[in-house]
Amino acid sequence: MNIFLSKAVLDFFIAFGIVLGGAMLGGIGAVVSLQPPTQTMLDVADRIKIWALAAAVGGTIDPMRVIESNMLGGNLSPAIKQILYLVFAFLGAHMGSELVKWVCGKG
């Protein structure tokens, strides 16, 4: 359980950091290009969320293959773990997006 929990927490914070860092750097880019940084940060945070989820779990196809092969084989434990990794990564990306909205005054 210790290995599972440590990977789940790592996936959460990787997705969180991708969304938060991408939005912040997008805001800096908006300032440099003389555009409104708040709206740019909000747009980037919403658009990057799915990519943060994919990057946190290590790609888009491999987790789906693990789920498919184990579900069809009747071995549910690895499939459930993989689904939980996806859930933790989604929560991290969503929390990062909500933090950006809160900082920008839209949440």
UniProtKB/TrEMBL annotation:
* Entry-linked Pfam families: Spore_YtrH
What transmembrane ranges does the database entry give? 12-34, 83-104
Q: Which InterPro entries match?
A: Spore_YtrH (IPR025689)
Q: Which domain of life is it from?
A: Bacteria
- Keywords associated with the record: Membrane, Transmembrane, Transmembrane helix
Q: What is this protein called?
A: Sporulation protein
Q: Give the species.
A: Paenibacillus jilunlii
